[in-house]
UniProtKB/TrEMBL annotation:
Organism: Mucinivorans hirudinis
EC number annotated for this UniProt entry: 6.1.1.20
Domain Aminoacyl-transfer RNA synthetases class-II family profile: 103-310
GO biological process: phenylalanyl-tRNA aminoacylation
Cofactor(s) recorded in Swiss-Prot or TrEMBL: Mg(2+)
Full protein name: Phenylalanine--tRNA ligase alpha subunit
Residue positions binding Mg(2+): 246
Family: Belongs to the class-II aminoacyl-tRNA synthetase family. Phe-tRNA synthetase alpha subunit type 1 subfamily.
Any Pfam family hit: Phe_tRNA-synt_N
InterPro entries, A to Z: aa-tRNA-synth_II, aa-tRNA-synth_II/BPL/LPL, Phe-tRNA-synth_IIc_asu, Phe-tRNA_ligase_II_N, Phe_tRNA_ligase_alpha1_bac, Phenylalanyl-tRNA_Synthase, tRNA-bd_arm
Primary subcellular site in the record, as a coarse category: cytoplasm
Amino acid sequence: ENLLKHIEDFSSDNIAKIEEFRVRMMGKKGEITTLFEDFKIITPDEKRAVGQKINALKNAATEKIAALKEFVENSDLAARECDDYTRPANCEPAGTRHPISLVRSQIIDIFSRIGFAVADGPEIEDDFHVFTALNFPPEHPARDMQDTFFIEKNPDILLRTHTSSIQVRVMQTQKPPIRVVCPGRVFRNEAISYRAHCIFHQVEGLYIDENVNFADLKQTIKYFASELFGEKTQIRLRPSYFPFTEPSAEVDVSCNLCAGKGCNVCKYTGWLEIMGAGMVDPNVLEMCGIDSQKYSGFAFGMGVERITMLKYGVKDLRLYFENDLRFLEQFKAIY
Ligand code: PHE
């Protein structure tokens, strides 16, 4: 009875102490093992009752040890290491940066090295900064309830659908030369799936000066792509359309997973789409108070979630928002 109580009372979150307990109970000279030895020398009519008791002890000890071990194994690894008092450093478990923050700062760093400053702006915007100043015609589908979260109608107040609204604010308040990147959270009325979310992050860029041309845009993007994805990365521009740029392009980078040969990540094309870009439409410059005879500029915009997927092989966008530590801790070594 005493031994049963002892087993029930035992507790430890130290794996060495638990093992010590196991040996003390069930090792070669363990207390329960010894009882089994004694069992051989008692009279046959005592065997039944005594046998039941010893078996009960053995089961109690086995269960106890398994439960304690499981508890220790499930508890945080870092916390367990704190039990080792011989460790030289203190062992506050360090957190990790979110992959979206990591990649956003990588993007900002790359552009800051060629003279781009960071600009910020509000997430709740008006129609002018998100659409009108960017040359969206009144009937453009992006203004539809399908794509945009409206807070108020007439006059329209809404959650920005892109960070181009920051660029409008910069053009309204600064004189060229302007060189900014605009990171921020954007909102679109989309069904959530592995490749779409109603909240995501963008970094857009804007460069305005005298004589800025399409070659400047291409060279800037080429520099960016090789800094982010590696020196050998190639870029490809395909004609596209945006209301605020003319001409406009979609930018692809060569798929570094298959060296341009084609794999399931790049849908067997050898190319991955990373951003939209183009020369700022003179109408936009004028609406933001910049002389389009004197100045020209280029703009580009990319989704941080998408860039992170391509760079680190993340296959489901929803992972970014779930805060599952098993996902987040994989980025511990990156900064
Ligand atoms: N604003 C565009 C978007 O959100 C991206 C873009 C920015 C395209 C600048 C061209 C130039 O999709």
